[in-house]
Amino acid sequence: MICSYGYGNWIRAIHYEAIPPPNGFPKLLPLLERMKSAYLLWYGYYQILPKLHRHTLGQRIDILFVEIIEAIALASFLRREEKQPYVRLAIRKVDTLKILLMVLWETKSIENTKYIALSEKIDEIGRMLGGWSGQLVKTQPRS
Predict the structure, then answer these.
(1) How confident is the model at residue 28 (pLDDT cuts 50, 70, 90)?
(2) Is 131 exposed, middle or buried (0-12, 13-18, 19+ CB in 10 A)?
(3) Of all residues in the chain, what percent are helix, strand and coil, respectively (each to 5)?
């Protein structure tokens, strides 16, 4: 955990960093690693959101992050022919997440730099999900 201090504020931001698992522990899929990293970044921002949005928009964004992680994790353990609905679900939730983050930014509840850092991670996750979906469609047997 890294704390950043600012002028006039006791704690300006807390950034949580992923700690690598000890040797012998299974590694996560790269997509889940990136999603976890994005969530840890969000969690640091979530703690300092204005109260007005922390318990409304912030809470909904937090729930979306968890739902995306669940959909990706579930899809990763299913057979190839069963994955597509969960990957599409994750894509839809990522799109919703982008819009809600934009609303949070437009209402000045999150700083530009934080919005940009988070958006870049979310965009990369969206591209990875799109690639995964494309692979699944390409290899799907035609009826």
Answers:
(1) confident
(2) exposed
(3) 65, 10, 25
Q: For residues 39 and 121, give the distance between their C-alpha atoms in angstroms, rounded to a whole number.
A: 10
Residue 132 exposed, middle or buried by CB count within 10 Å (0-12, 13-18, 19+): buried
Q: What are the boundaries of each domain within the chain?
A: 29-138
Residue whose tokens read 């300006």: 12
What is the token pair recorded at 136? 């699944």
How many Cβ atoms are within 10 Å of 73's Cβ, its own excluded?
16
Domain at 29-138: CATH architecture: Up-down Bundle (1.20)
Residue 14 · residue 2 · CB < 8 Å: yes
pLDDT of 48 higher than 70 = yes
Per the structure block, which two tokens stand in for 140? 């799907």
pLDDT in tens, 99-118: 999 999 999 999 999 999 99
